[in-house]
Design goal:
The protein is α+β, with helices and mostly antiparallel strands. 50% of the residues lie in helices and 9% in strands.
């Protein structure tokens, strides 16, 4: 088995779990849910499944990702004032330019992650937050704190870096309160609903969330789309013949190799799910990756198909549907189009070690050496 094979090995397990134990309590004491219908219920039914899940030190703080209605509704409404379709669409040309610049003067063979998938989302988020270019590397470093679960980083160092990040973001917010600009963060700072806006701490927490969710998941969406196209040369040939299919290629990669594999909830009361009865206060792992390959929901689910139309759960569903989904799609589209221009012919992943991202709830790679032929 190669390193990339490991990305798909989990899907064999998911298939068996959907068949034999779709809702099961694991040795870790948590419930694991695999079927599309059940996963969708867990992430939608906030009356019975709460998003307020703690994992020891809550590095992300009180973001709306960890809130239930009605508090979630307030935070989401304020964020929607900034993340309007018009504002996101206006970033399209800039993101395309950033992607093209990252590939300028690169050799025909390149590491897609190092050249594009890792830096592009950071640059996009920096654009949103009005961050100076020389701080981009700091933002990448800060986001990696949240993804280092298997490395057991030194907690004192984690605290120092988080403090560094909080101080920078808080100072930026206060500076832009006094002297607003035209970045998306300015709209967020000055957004109001029912006469109230976001506090500084809520804005800092939102920036944390944007940095992690917007950086790491978009990084993986870009790389996973490229992997899918390298594995399926017929789909790549279709894209070269018809660039209007690029958004479909990104969307299908989000289903086929879902960057976010798991969402976590906790039961608020006793609830029946499938044939199981879950007590209150139990942690529930809802496997988006499994739901997105459920044969009860998708025709030929293990086929990468640019013409698929069934809706997937790659960006979640319901009140917690990913706020940054349009931005992630835009960045991935720009990255794929830049690579189509830069690398003609078929794409092949070079025969070199490719390490998967360490976070268990993500699907992606930390490097992707790609050549064209």
């Amino acid at each position: 088995m190669t390193d990339l094979d490991g990305l798909t090995a989990r899907y064999d397990d998911y298939r068996e779990f959907r068949r034999t134990k779709p809702v099961t309590r694991g040795e870790d004491g948590c419930w694991h849910v695999y079927r599309h219908e059940d996963v969708k219920r867990v992430i939608n039914d906030h009356e019975r499944f709460s998003a307020k899940v703690s994992f020891g030190a809550n590095l992300l703080g009180e973001t709306m990702m960890r809130q239930d209605p009605p508090e979630h509704r307030r935070l989401r409404a304020l964020a929607n004032h900034a993340f309007t379709p018009r504002r996101i669409a206006a970033l399209g040309q800039k993101i395309a330019e950033l992607a093209a610049e990252r590939l300028a003067d690169r050799a025909a063979g390149l590491d897609v992650v190092a050249a594009l998938a890792a830096p592009l989302p950071v640059m996009v988020i920096a654009e949103i937050l009005g961050v100076e270019p020389h701080r981009h590397e700091d933002f990448k470093r800060w986001s990696e704190i949240f993804m280092s679960h298997d490395k057991r980083p030194d907690q004192a160092e984690v605290a120092r870096l988080l403090g560094e990040m909080r101080d920078y973001v808080a100072a930026t917010i206060e500076r832009r309160r006094r002297k607003p600009g035209d970045a998306l963060i300015d709209a967020l700072i000055h957004a109001e609903v029912d006469g109230g806006g976001l506090t500084t701490e809520e804005l800092v927490a939102f920036c944390y969330l944007l940095l992690v969710a917007g950086n790491e998941t978009t990084h993986n969406l870009i790389a996973n789309t490229v992997i899918c196209l390298a594995w399926h040369p017929e789909a790549l040939a279709e894209l070269r013949a018809d660039r209007t299919l690029v958004p479909a290629a990104v969307e299908e990669a989000n289903r086929y190799l879902s960057p976010v594999q798991i969402l976590v909830r906790v039961t608020r009361a006793e609830v029946r799910l499938g044939d199981a009865v879950l007590p209150p206060g139990e942690r529930v792992f809802a496997y988006l990756g499994s739901a997105n390959r459920d044969e009860e929901q998708f025709a030929s689910p293990d086929r990468y198909d640019l013409h698929r139309r069934e809706p997937h759960l790659g960006f979640g569903h319901g009140v917690h549907y990913c706020l940054g989904a349009p931005l992630g799609r835009l960045a991935a589209k720009a990255a794929v189009e830049a690579l189509l221009d830069h690398l003609p012919g078929e794409w092949t992943v070079a025969d070199r070690p490719v390490r998967q991202v360490p976070a268990f709830f993500l699907c992606g790679v930390t490097s992707l050496p790609l050549v064209s032929r």
